[in-house]
Amino acid sequence: MYEQYFGLSERPFAITPNPRFVFLSQRHQDALAHLLYGVGTGGSGGFVQLTGEVGTGKTTLCRLVLEQVPENTRVALILNPMLSPPELLRAICVELEIDVDSAGDSMQALLDALNRYLLARHAAGERVVLIIDEAQNMSRQGLEQIRLLTNLETATDKLLQILLLGQPELRELLARPELRQLAQRITARYHLDPLNAEETEAYVRHRLAVAGAARCPFGRDALKALYRVSGGVPRLINIIADRALLAGYAGEQEKIHRRLVHSAAAEVSGEEEAESHGGWLRGAVASLAVVLVLAGGGWLGWTLTGTDQSAAETSPRPAWQNMISDATSESAWLEMAAAWPGQSRLAVAAACEGPETVVDGVACVSLRGNWAYIRQIGLPVILRLTNESGGGWRHVMMVGLIGEQIVLRHQGQEIQVPARQLDRRWLGDFLVVWPDDGQILRPGQSGATVVRMKELAAASDRIPWEGPLDDRYDSEFTGWVQAFQRGHGLSDDGMIGPVTRLFLKAPQRDGPALIIEQSSVN
Which end of the chain is more exposed for a tag (fewer CB within 10 A), N or C? Predict the structure, then answer.
C-alpha cells in the first residue's frame, strides 16, 4: 500500500521469512558459526545449544543452516517437540524417511530402526543431524530420550549430532539437577542477544535497500526511537517499522519521525499511549482504508499501471545488470586466476566446484556474511548472485569497496555498483580463492613454518598471540589456535590448515588486496 509512496519495490518489513532480506549482524554470524560447527564434524556427537528471545532470528538462522548442509549430511528437523518419547522417536524416523509402519508405539522397535539407519549412513560416509526447534517446550522425559540417542555409536564415532534451539527458558530447563547428564554433553552454547542500536539502524537500512529504497525514510531520531521501543528484536522492528511507514503514508509524511514510531509501537502493543499519541494515527489509517474501498481499488490500480511503470519501461538498463547477466562461473574463475599470478582457470574451477578445499595448489572456500565481513577478509572474492529472472545463479568477481559502491570486474572491465542495489541480488554467499599448498601444521611440529604462523598470530586483530615467536608448536600455542578458530567460526581442531591460514591473513601478505576507500558499507 505504501510502497510506491516511499519508492519501494516491495514491503521491506514483512514478518514472513524471505532469504533476500537476511541481515547477519556479528552476533548472528557467530551464532550461525556455532550451528554450522554442530552440523560439521566439530560437534563430535554432543549437543549444540542456541538460545535467544522470541523474534531474535533463531528460526532464520536454522533456515540458513539447512541451506548450507554438506551433501553427505542427512537432517531431521523437529519443529514441534511437545511429544511423548514414542511420538518424538517416530517423528525423527519420519523426518529421516525411515519405514516404521510396523513398529507401532514400541520404543525398542523405533530405536532399533533408527540405529540400523544410523549405522548404514555411517558406513556410507554420511552424517546425520537432528535439529529441534522450540526445545524449551520439551518435557523432561523427551529431553532424556534425546540424551539417550547420543548413546548410539560405533567404537570410534557418535552416530547422531543434535542441535537444540530454544528460548532462554531452555537454559533454565537444562540447569535442573535431573537433567545434568544432558547438560554435561553440550559441547557448544550460544545465546543470541537482540541487536544493539547501531545494528538496528544497519538492519533497517539493509531491508529498505533490498526493497529498492533510494533513501531511508526514517530520520535519525526515528531510528533511535525504533531501537528503544523494539529492544533490538528483529521481529518487533519489522512490525513497528511497517506500521510506521503505513501511518506515514496515510498522513502524507515524507519522513518518519520519532513521534510516529512511538505511536506505531503503542498501536502494535495496545498500550494506553495509543489514546494520547496514536489516536490520530488510527484515524488516518482508517480513513485511508475507507477511501481505497470506496474507490474500488481504481486509484491503486492506476498507481501500479500509470506513469511510473511507463518510466520504468523506457529507462535504460543499468550497465552493471548487463555485466551480471553476461557473467558465468567460468568467467569468474578466469578473472580470479588472473588476479593471482601463476594460477590457472582450471585449478580455480576444480577447487571451487569440487569437494576438496585445495586442488593443484589453489584453495577455495565458500563463506557467508555481509560487506563488512568481506572487507575484514581483505581479498577479492567471487559473489554468488541470483539471476534477474529468479532462477539459477551468477558469479562475478568483486575487487573493491569504495564508499557505498561495490567494484565488480568482468572480462577485464571494472564497474561500480551501489551496494543497496546489489543487495537485491546478493544473499550473502561468496567464494574466497587463494594459492595454498594444502599443508596441515599440527601440534608437536617445529620449524620455520611454525615461526611464520606465530608471527601472523601475533599480528592478529582479535586475540593476538603474546607468547614467544619460537619454532615450537606446543600446547600453549595449540590452545591459542583453538581459541582463534572458535572466534572465527571454524572447527577448533588446533591444527593450522588452509582456512585457518586465510583468517591468519597469510595469503593477504602477498596477494591482491581488496580495494577499500571510505569504508562505510555495512
Answer: N
What are 70-105's pLDDT values in tens digits? 878 899 999 888 888 888 999 999 999 998 888 777
The DSSP secondary-structure symbol of 218 reads B
Beta bridge mates, 165: 50
Beta strands in 53-185 (DSSP E): 73-78, 127-132, 161-166
Q: Helix count (H) and strand count (E) of the chain?
A: 23, 13
User: Would 513 be classed as within a structural domain?
Assistant: no
Domain count within the chain: 4
Domain final residue, candidates 138, 169, 192? 192
Q: How many CB atoms neighbour CB 3 within 10 A? A: 18
Please check whether residue 372 lies inside any domain of the structure: yes
Q: Are 286 and 333 part of one and the same domain? A: no
Phi, psi of 390 (to 5 degrees): 100, -15
- What is the tens place of the pLDDT at every residue in 448-463? 999 999 999 999 877 8
CATH number at residue 137: 3.40.50.300
**Rounded to whole angstroms, how far apart are CA atoms 23 and 107?**
42
- Residues 176, 120 share a domain: yes
- Cell representation of residue 140: 523432561
Taking the C-alpha atoms of residue 87 and residue 424, their distance in angstroms, rounded to an integer, is: 42
Q: What is the tens place of the pLDDT at every residue in 349-362?
A: 999 988 778 999 99
Distance CA 162, CA 42 (A): 12
Identity of the residue numbered 384: R
One-letter amino acid at 29 equals Q
156 shares a domain with 42: yes
Q: How many other C-beta atoms lie within 10 A of the C-beta of residue 185?
A: 15
> CB neighbours (10 Å) of residue 221?
14
Are 328 and 416 in a shared domain? yes
Chain centroid to Cα 366, Å, comes to: 13
Dihedrals φ, ψ of 319, to 5°?
-65, -35
**Residue 165 DSSP SS3:** strand
CATH of the domain at 355: 3.90.70.10
Taking the C-alpha atoms of residue 359 and residue 437, their distance in angstroms, rounded to an integer, is 9
Compute the C-alpha angle 158/355/33, nearest 5°: 60
- Residues 258 and 188 both lie in one domain: no
Are residues 179 and 141 in contact, defined by beta-carbon separation less than 8 angstroms?
A: no
How many CA atoms lie less than 13 Å away from 121 in the CB half-sphere?
25
Strand runs (DSSP E) across 300-424, as ranges? 358-359, 362-368, 381-386, 393-402, 405-410, 413-418
Together in a domain, 394 and 456 = no
Range of the domain at 366: 319-437
440's CB contacts (< 8 A; 6+ apart) are 495, 496, 497
